[in-house]
Here is the input.
Amino acid sequence: MSETNGKGARGGREAQLKRTGLRSGWTTGACATAATTAAYTALLTGEFPDPVTITLPKGQQPSFALAREELGNGWAMAAIVKDAGDDPDVTHLALVRSTVRHGAPGSGVLFLAGPGVGTITLPGLPLPVGEPAINPVPRQMMREAVESLASHHGRPADVAIEISVDHGEELARQTWNPRLGIVGGLSILGTTGIVVPYSCSAWIDSIRMGIDVAVAMGHPHVAGCTGSTSERVVVGKYALPDEALLDMGDFAGAVLKYLRRHPVPRLTIAGGFAKMSKLAAGHMDLHSGRSQVDTSFLTDLARGAGASPTLAASVSAAHTGLGALQLCQAAGVPLGDAVAVAARDAALLVLRGAPVTVDTICIDRAGVIVGRAQPAGPY
Here is the structure.
């Protein structure tokens, strides 16, 4: 997509590029707002602005080129191709459409889910069940754009806005939407309008929404897993429903801190041995670029689990967590269990007495359980 950025947006994106070497992009909410602004302008004037400029929540004013435009009797449609920059976003290059129609007098601004945009079916999200999955900030951005245009042209802001995303239902299968109870398509997201490449914020927001849904549905047991293999192990052990499975990934701290404020009675944390050893050592971000396996810590755990001085020296010299585990397995020393217990205790420290009982499971790369810690309650 060709985009001409306003001064504020260009400055922010250039600074971000200089800082990280990665190019930022635009949220689906920003694209929907741009498409809505263009479509409503055409509905009022008969002409589509191209490019169309919008104002983001922090004041940046990017401009977007239109990919499609249609003007009919009482309606107008404009579409924007989403540019997610260098973020690995499934909606990158998706076509975001807004079809705008005049509403009934006094109806205000109404939002509708068109093809490819989901509908809320479970409680716990920031929108009521039955509403289109168009999040509050994008709604506010579109509402403000429509109200400003309506005021400028001396019209009441009674407008129906239908947002759709081409192939959105197919794309949504690659997201967490089905697990969160958003059916039929994607969510229209964004709090700033800008996608920061490899940002943690979107993932952490999804973790929080997952906990909110689990709480709203009354699930007494949730699980945070580092990946799909550990998740399959947990489902096999506890038969948890999808809504109780949190997409934790590397963000153990995000799960624990949010559960501290929004407790669920039981939490299982499961993951590969190396990542769980990092949690055991007190790391809350388990990404390889932000925390490392501490072989000195593993050596101490191995000694506590019965390792001989010779084995302890070998563990200390191991190049990987898996290597340390295999050495201990060969010697019959339960290092996996020791890591699981330490990880559970580290999680309980972060929970700070919240009424959450925690157990942990460590697996190897084949999905075999190599360590477990029994449930323990708050300190």
Observations:
- The longest helix spans residues 28-45.
- DSSP finds 13 helices and 19 strands in the chain.
- The two ends are 54 Å apart (CA to CA).
- Confidence is low (pLDDT under 50) at residues 1-20.
